[in-house]
Amino acid sequence: MNNEILWLVRLGLDQRLFTRTQAIAVRSAVGDAADLMDFAQKLIDDAIVEDLEALEKIAGLAQAKGAKSAPADDPFDESEPEPESDLPPVAARKRPAGPAPKFAFDQVPKMTADALANGLRDLLKASALYGASDLHLSTGARPFLRKNREFEFIGAQPLTAEDSLRLNTVLLSEGQKGIYLERKDYDFALSLGGNDRYRVNLMFHKNGAAGSYRMVPDKVRTLEELGYSSHLDTLKRLLSYHNGLILITGPVGSGKTTTLASMVAYLNETREDHIITVEDPIEVVQPSKGCNVTQREVGPHTKSFFTALKGALREDPDIIVIGELRDLETIEMAISASETGHLVIGTMHTSDAATTLNRLLDVFPPAQQTQIRASVAESLRGIVCQRLLPDTDGGLALACEILVNNTAIQNLIKEGKATGLRNTMETGVKEGMCLMDNVVYGLWQNHVISAATAKANILNRVLRNKIS
């Protein structure tokens, strides 16, 4: 067997992805002339390994190590005992999904307020345990969950206007209910105790009241756990700066808030600074560890992102985290803060690095363009664009595009030549850059996503034509 496979087996045994007996069986099936991808694919085809992200990670390490040397011992040696690990097996580390949540929606008119409130709390908790990302309760529609981007109905009949209004207001205080009924829109964070939190949006539409309940994870996952294993060094390098601007971008539902929370948690554990976050609303509560973390929510704690950011500059911050860069004043203040000795991290709803830069710069009037391009060229540290794609296992896979600011990128920004970004990023792989098309193509090559999903998310015709 070649060195790459020997390393794959050694690393897989160490991580308890499979047993030595299973590895020997795969070797027997594929033969000693097989390459790394053949061996890894057989592990997947035989359902020996279900954690594709972990397998992809060790396959990359095996490829790098195999180019240099073989492991010190033969991982196929049956006389050697199975390696022990402090970690449980990978399958045991996955959080099992609970049963599909149930709720007697037809009994809502007969329920007392207390019974309805308790029932909705139980429904939210059950939905989170089930692995759903969102719960929707809307007039004229059947109640449904969103799990791995797909709808799953949990009610047999559409909700009436009266039932929907009761369900969506039963957990509100009188003050909150008054705001909702007056504004017809209301965003807030719902806490049911401990880490049991939900981001809620209530609104009215043509049929009546509606509510969307986003499940906030009870634990902040690391960047590695989110799927950034291959780009960990690049992200940590970006987060090591003490000034500058980092942008996390992606479409709605792409996990920007989760990534942002993971970055704050990493900074909180590795630095001793003052972190101020401005969010709408606060989703993930970050207890102070190495850093002092001050979290502010638009509405209860500050009038707007702009006023909070303006005030933050007088509050001795080292790191400023902005939930969303959505208007000219906030973007301008964020750029100014990044130029004056603060590390600023913010999110935007854009799909790639070029679009992000255009959106960032085009909000400014023509008279300011030259000045703002020079400022962004100097202050920008990097852009991380991400997307969640349905994987072949029924879950979601992370695809990302990373821009790291260097001299070539700076010149393109100053000159307004966003069309040249793609070529510069392709030649900047050694600096940690990557293009979304290439990452998606790699996910398909590693059998993480289907050919149809890959084609739908790749713009490059040459790469798309390679997919069969």
Task: Report on this structure.
This protein has 468 residues and is an alpha/beta fold. It has 20 helices and 13 strands. The protein has a seven-stranded mixed sheet with strand order 9-8-10-11-7-12-13, with helices on both faces. Strand 12 and strand 13 form a beta hairpin. Helix 1 packs across helix 4. The longest helix has 18 residues.
Number of helices: 20
Number of strands: 13
The computed structural class is: alpha/beta
What distance separates the N and C termini? Answer: 29 Å
Tell me the fraction of residues in β-strands, as a range: 15-25%
Poorly predicted runs of 5 or more residues: 83-97
Question: What level of helicity do the residues show?
Answer: 40-55%
Strand order of the largest sheet: 9-8-10-11-7-12-13
Query: What does the main sheet amount to?
Result: 7 strands, mixed
Oligomer: single chain
- The rough form would be described as globular
The radius of gyration is: 25 Å
Mean pLDDT over the residues = 89
Question: Concise description?
Answer:
The protein is α/β, with parallel strands linked by helices.
Keywords:
alpha/beta; 18% strand; 468 residues; seven-stranded mixed sheet; six-stranded antiparallel sheet; 13 strands
Topology:
Elements: H1 3-14, H2 20-30, H3 36-45, H4 52-66, H5 90-93, H6 113-130, E1 134-138, E2 144-147, E3 150-153, H7 161-169, H8 174-183, E4 185-191, E5 197-205, E6 208-216, H9 223-228, H10 232-239, E7 244-249, H11 256-270, E8 274-279, E9 292-297, H12 305-312, E10 319-322, H13 328-339, E11 343-348, H14 353-362, H15 369-379, E12 380-390, E13 396-404, H16 407-415, H17 421-426, H18 436-445, H19 451-456, H20 461-465
